[in-house]
Specification:
Elements (H helix, E strand, L loop, with lengths): L1 H20 L1 H12 L5 H28 L2 E2 L3 E2 L10 E2 L1 E2 H22 L6 H24 L3 H5 L7 H19 L20 H18 L10 H33 L4 H15 L8 H25 L8 H19 L12 H30 L7 H6 L1 H6 L6
Antiparallel strand pairs: 1-2, 3-4
Helix pairs in contact: 1-4, 1-8, 2-3, 2-4, 2-8, 3-4, 3-5, 4-5, 4-7, 5-7, 5-13, 7-12, 7-13, 8-10, 9-10, 9-11, 10-11, 10-12, 11-12, 12-13
Amino acid sequence: MEGLTISIDTIWILVAAALVMFMQPGFALVESGFTRSKNTANILMKNLMDFSIGSMGFWLIGYTIMYGEDVGGFIGKMSLFFNSDAINGVPDKASLMFQTVFAATAATIVSGAVAERTKFSAYLIFSVAITVIIYPISGHWVWGGGWLSELGFHDFAGSTVVHSVGAWVGLIGAAMVGPRLGKYGKAGEPKAIPGSNLALGALGVFILWFGWFGFNPGSQLAAAGEENAVAISHIFITTNLAAAAGAVTAMFVTWMKYKRPGLSITLNGALAGLVAITAGCDIVSPGGAVLIGIIAGVILVFGVAFIDRVLKVDDPVGAVSVHGLSGAAGTLLVGLFSTTEGLFYGGGTTLLGIQAIGVLAVAAWAMGLGFILFFILKKTIGIRVSRRVEEEGLDVYEHGESAFN
């Protein structure tokens, strides 16, 4: 029976890893659809490379930084070229594969925030930095036995650990690389730059929604037995309901605010719901999941406007609002909606306070390291393409080919 349990759990984790890996084309399609066709090949290349480079970097050293023996609550004991055949519930290599696709997700979020004006060479460098330094260290704090896990911080599948980390690095990158040409008028008013293909964007969102059923339920890390079966089923429901509520809420809020139900914002509303529920999908009720999705949908609409109009940071796909603001909000809402320790269930404010500490600490880490990284790149190889390249498109100048001919 023990061998059967290990086999079932291993198969589940690897199937979930494959579902999460399938989110990469989802991200690629969303970013391609929400940006202009002259940069599509560049965007597809970035998404391909951050997964490829991230896979090698995380295997090389990132995994042990994140999951190695704890050193002072800050970092795991590092070793190179992970090759353990040990079984700790499931084979270590199954765990490596599952965690690799999460690391790649954190890296690819940055791509959307800095799209259409960033040098490909610079992107490759910070993609490496995210997957081997920034993400593994803060990930260790939560999932590797570090100081936040000791506090009792709860982020089941990565609202903060994965999504917010990528978004906060992306926010710093987008601010430092500057807005796209023509994004802001002489008086600083933002101007819409329509995407090339909302059909691709919509397909990408559906793929991401589908892949999230590996992201969240897969984080149960086991499938054998009645307890795991019940938990996985519950997580499927909370994940789906939050996404649906986020999409519906974003549609209605957009309809009221702008007099039309916009497709692009509604699509991002579904993603905001998914990101927000990721932290607490295991310990909130279905009703709580709906409320978290509704809150995320509202935050998404006003967050996009705030970043665009007040901060004047050009985020072409809304990555910071979807993954950063919604991820932070979803993590905090665990402190309210957790059926075991949440404020609304008689648990007091202890968990809410711990969640706030974790959100702020990870945000400070990601933005601080992101600033250092982009500052060094800006002063050395540069991070922005020339005006001519941006105007005519990154595809031809950066890659020598176009996505559409």
